[in-house]
Design brief:
Elements lengths: L2 H9 L10 E5 L2 E5 L3 E6 L5 E6 L2 E4 L18 E4 L2 H9 L12 E6 L3 E7 L3 E8 L14 E6 L8 H6 L6 E7 L2 E5 L4 E5 L18 E6 H11 L8 E9 L2 E10 L4 E8 L1 E4 L6 E5 H7 L6 E6 L6 E4 L2 E4 L2 E4 L3 E5 L6
Antiparallel strand pairs: 1-2, 1-4, 2-3, 3-13, 4-5, 6-11, 7-8, 7-10, 8-9, 9-24, 11-12, 12-13, 14-18, 14-20, 15-16, 15-19, 16-17, 20-21, 21-24, 22-23
């Protein structure tokens, strides 16, 4: 990626400090910052401060000494594969409510074998495992293990993972943590972000232990139907999923109704039940959240449920637990249903 693409979003911001609208070039490294994030790339430009004019870097009259010094990149290096599907789902499930600052972030839980990533906004949560890519299979040192809360700056697109996703050519990350910063590098750019203080919620409490009911649908067919239903939803953006029998077998009828405009949407998609809960024939879910939940691999997507008010979990992989198939809890999204009236 070009320097302008990487550093442009930071230097083009409306900053109160003029120096933040410049980049620092020192010893072959270009650095931009908004004081919460530092972005670094390699460059051939001579040392100095530069401002962006069009698509060109022009020497700035501001003294180089005024530029905030970037934190050193240090800490145990852990190599991870950038899983683009789960990264997009993690970004979608973060909160943007400024009053819930701890949820405006992604939790990086570093353990001996890799990293568990989690995000939630209080209504839905997603969690996944990113294993190490190192050929050295020794456990990650204990001093590097722990919980690190990596925030966005008011918009999920400003999160380091969102910034790294823009580079379509690089899918390997090196993660280093030295509190109060986490450093993420893909070989082309290194992003240092200031960690959020505080304890992340215990997301495991909302993940159901078991899937009493379990069914699956085709991902693409379901997404198409949900997008069609979106304009028909009311202020709560609710769709009802009715588990019914059709002429050609079992179907999932997607029902949405906008009472104010007297609009009704009904569409059936094919569904197969692994097992059913007899007393549950429909679920009410926020259609926007459900679309985010369907940021999954192509193919079959599984729904796990217990009753109409318990959390509904969604994933693409099954494991055997308690002598029956369950959705894999290491790559799962959970959404709270809405009461049907």
């Amino acid at each position: 990626m070009k320097d302008v693409q990487i550093h442009g979003p930071l230097v083009k911001k409306k900053n109160l400090l003029p120096v933040l609208n410049t980049v620092l070039v020192k010893d072959g490294e270009m650095v931009s910052t908004d004081l919460d994030r530092y972005v670094r790339t390699q460059t051939d430009l001579p040392n100095g401060l530069y401002r962006l004019v069009g698509t060109d870097w022009v020497k700035s009259p501001i003294s180089q000494d005024e530029f905030p010094p970037p934190p050193p990149v240090s800490g145990t290096g852990v190599k991870l594969e950038l899983d683009r599907i789960t990264a997009k789902r993690l970004l979608a499930c973060m909160s943007t409510d400024e009053t819930r600052y701890i949820l405006n972030s992604i939790l990086f839980r570093v353990h001996a074998e890799g990293v568990t990533l989690t995000s939630t906004d209080g209504r839905r949560a997603t969690t996944c495992e990113w294993p190490r890519m190192d050929t050295d299979k020794r456990p990650i040192p204990k001093k590097a293990q722990g919980d690190y809360v990596v925030p966005h700056q008011g918009n999920p697109n400003t999160h380091p993972l969102a910034m790294l996703l823009k580079d379509k050519q690089r899918d390997t990350l090196t993660m280093q943590t030295e509190v109060p910063y986490m450093h993420l590098s893909n070989g082309e750019q290194t992003i240092s972000v200031k960690l959020t203080d505080g304890t992340y919620p215990n997301y495991k409490q909302v993940i159901p232990v078991d899937d009493e009911g379990l069914f699956y649908v085709e991902r693409d067919e379901m997404i198409e139907a949900l997008k069609e239903a979106l304009p028909y939803t009311n202020d709560d953006f609710t769709v009802q999923l009715h588990m019914e029998k059709g002429n050609d077998g079992n179907v999932l009828r997607i029902h949405a109704e906008n009472v104010d405009e007297a609009l009704v949407f009904d569409r059936c998609v094919s569904v197969e039940h692994v097992r059913r809960v007899k007393k549950v024939d429909r679920l009410a879910l926020d259609v926007r959240y459900l679309l985010d939940t369907f940021i999954q691999e192509e193919g079959l997507v599984y729904f796990g449920y217990t009753d109409a008010l318990a959390p509904v979990d969604v994933g693409t992989h099954l494991v055997s637990r308690n002598k029956r198939d369950q959705i894999d809890r290491t790559d799962i999204t959970v959404q709270m249903p809405m009461r049907i009236t």
